[in-house]
């Protein structure tokens, strides 16, 4: 940790004075700090966890999927789909790759443009901490926040580690997922305290749970997976349809998971059905050799794993083998409809959908339109990425935007 200047005294109380205080030593907060520090702004990062970047260390199964080379604004959910454009253009996946290469961190592309560290996510965290040290950034962990006020010129932070006065405050406290790793609603509370609206939050990139009937029909097949195309039902008045995801779906003992389901979960609204094409781009039952259950099973086994094929046929064999019923069966196969009972919640969610309303933030700097000097970056903002390195790319990009302004 870099030492700060000797604290000033006010009424016998030591007050640390900095240019920029950053709440949250995660991906977005550390990236913002690197950029404020490089600009010569005295920067202090505060975190209640005992160490910085805990979520980075568990990300990507311990190897951190640190960006996605195909990231565009279309890969993000927000009430304002245009908001992320400026930040994502300012700091691109190529910029992140250049940083990783400058630190000689070995990495590889796994699939669909997803870049992972070869060795461990520790490499990525060490990169951020080294850059912070070079930029003279002070990081104070194990520090909880007691109150924050603003006097028109400065923010005053009362913390468990003492009083802090800062010209700018960057809130980078992340979302609500994985509370046992230290996620808290502090960022949303600060936003509301200063008059900001919050777009309702919900778990995203999260496994979904079955209603009792589906649980009885499918949950004993837990562990089986198959490639599907996952769809939501378009909401009324929705101008741009939600994306569809062609990836693996996994049956769990409580419901559905796997990349296709995690992706679609971020778009799913409680009570709504989801539809899964179980044989993308293939015709299954229209080309049957014979019109009987044996031939149907043989055809379905051509596209689904054995036990899943048997169950699907057992549950869907038609009463008659007319052209109309076969056409209906084919359609059913391409739109297996499941209405989830819910999600596995923040305990299992990779991200939080919703957050600080972007309408009250400047998209080029992440600065509040209501309070000068107040910034929100990373997951606390109502910008949520798809699975596959997009959420870190948003954390880096929004962190850089704020870091170049605060
Ligand atoms: P982040 O959560 O990283 O940091 C917030 C910081 O604020 C934390 O250090 C926390 O301790 C601190 N904080 C919170 N409340 C506080 C309080 N009250 N007082 C003080 N400090 C407080 N994304 C991706 O792109 N690729 C991947 O491989 C993965 N993998 C992955 C795995 C798992 C298991 C999860 C849960 C998530 C991912 N993600 C991911 C998502 C990604 O980790 C996430 O979007 C970013 O870490 C968000 O960065 P932030 O800096 O906004 O929040």
Description of the molecule:
The chain has 406 residues and is an alpha+beta fold. It folds into two domains: 228 residues, 3-Layer(bba) Sandwich (FAD/NAD(P)-binding domain), CATH 3.50.50.60; 136 residues, Translation factors (Elongation Factor Tu (Ef-tu), domain 3, Beta Barrel), CATH 2.40.30.10. 28% of the residues lie in helices and 25% in strands. The chain has twelve helices and 22 strands. The strands form five sheets. Strands 1, 2, 3, 8, 9, 10, 11 and 21 form an eight-stranded mixed beta sheet that branches. The chain has a seven-stranded antiparallel beta sheet with strand order 18-17-14-15-16-13-19. Strand 2, helix 1 and strand 3 form a beta-alpha-beta unit. Helix 1 packs parallel to helix 5 and helix 1 packs parallel to helix 12. The chain is elongated and about 85 Å long. The two termini are 21 Å apart. The model has no long low-confidence stretch (mean pLDDT 95). The structure holds dihydroflavine-adenine dinucleotide (FDA). The site of dihydroflavine-adenine dinucleotide has 37 residues, from helix 1, helix 2 and helix 12. It comes from Granulicella pectinivorans. Keywords: FAD, Flavoprotein, Membrane, Transmembrane, Transmembrane helix. This is Flavoprotein, HI0933 family.
Radius of gyration: 24 Å
How many domain regions? 2
What does the main sheet amount to? Answer: 8 strands, mixed
The DSSP helix count reads: 12
Tell me, rounded to a whole number, the average pLDDT: 95
Shape: elongated
Q: Which superfamily, in CATH terms, is the homologous superfamily of the largest domain?
A: FAD/NAD(P)-binding domain
Please state the second-level CATH architecture of the largest domain: 3-Layer(bba) Sandwich
**Beta-strand share of residues:** 25-35%
Q: Give the tally of β-strands.
A: 22
What hetero molecules are in the model?
dihydroflavine-adenine dinucleotide
Name of the top-level CATH class of the largest domain: Alpha Beta
């Amino acid at each position: 940790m870099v030492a700060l200047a000797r604290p000033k005294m006010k009424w016998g109380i030591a007050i640390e004075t900095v240019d920029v205080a950053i709440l949250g030593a995660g991906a977005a907060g550390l990236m913002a700090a690197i950029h404020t520090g490089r600009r010569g702004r005295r920067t202090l990062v505060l975190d209640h966890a005992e160490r910085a970047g805990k979520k980075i260390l568990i990300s990507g199964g311990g190897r951190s999927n640190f960006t996605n080379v195909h990231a565009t604004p279309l890969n993000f959910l927000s009430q304002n789909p245009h908001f992320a454009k400026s930040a994502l253009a300012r700091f691109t996946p190529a910029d992140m790759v250049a940083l990783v290469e400058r630190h000689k961190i070995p990495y590889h592309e796994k699939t669909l443009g997803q870049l992972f560290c070869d060795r461990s996510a520790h490499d990525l965290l060490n990169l951020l901490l080294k850059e912070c040290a070079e930029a003279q950034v002070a990081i104070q962990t194990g520090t909880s926040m007691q109150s924050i006020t603003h006097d028109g010129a400065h923010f005053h932070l009362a913390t468990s580690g003492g009083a802090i006065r800062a010209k700018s405050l960057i809130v980078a406290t992340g979302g609500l997922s994985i509370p046992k790793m230290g996620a808290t609603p502090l960022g949303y509370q600060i936003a509301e305290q200063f008059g900001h609206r919050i777009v309702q939050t919900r778990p995203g990139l999260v496994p979904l749970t079955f209603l009792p009937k589906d649980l009885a029909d499918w949950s004993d097949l837990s562990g089986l997976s198959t490639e599907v195309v996952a769809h939501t039902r378009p909401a009324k008045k929705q101008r741009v349809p939600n994306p569809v995801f062609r990836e693996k779906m996994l049956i769990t003992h409580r419901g559905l998971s796997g990349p296709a389901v995690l992706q679609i979960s971020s778009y799913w609204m409680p009570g709504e059905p989801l539809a899964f094409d179980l044989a993308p781009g293939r015709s299954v039952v229209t080309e049957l050799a014979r019109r009987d259950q044996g031939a149907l099973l043989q055809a379905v086994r051509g596209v689904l794993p054995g036990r899943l094929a048997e169950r699907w046929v057992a549950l869907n064999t038609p009463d008659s083998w007319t052209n109309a019923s076969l056409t209906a069966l084919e359609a059913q196969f391409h739109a297996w409809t499941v209405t989830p009972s819910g999600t596995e919640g923040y305990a299992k969610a990779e991200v939080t959908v919703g957050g600080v309303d972007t309408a009250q933030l400047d998209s080029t700097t992440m600065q509040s339109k209501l309070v000068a000097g107040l910034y929100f970056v990373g997951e606390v903002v109502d910008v949520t990425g798809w699975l596959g390195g997009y959420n870190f790319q948003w954390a880096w990009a929004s962190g850089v935007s704020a870091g170049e302004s605060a």
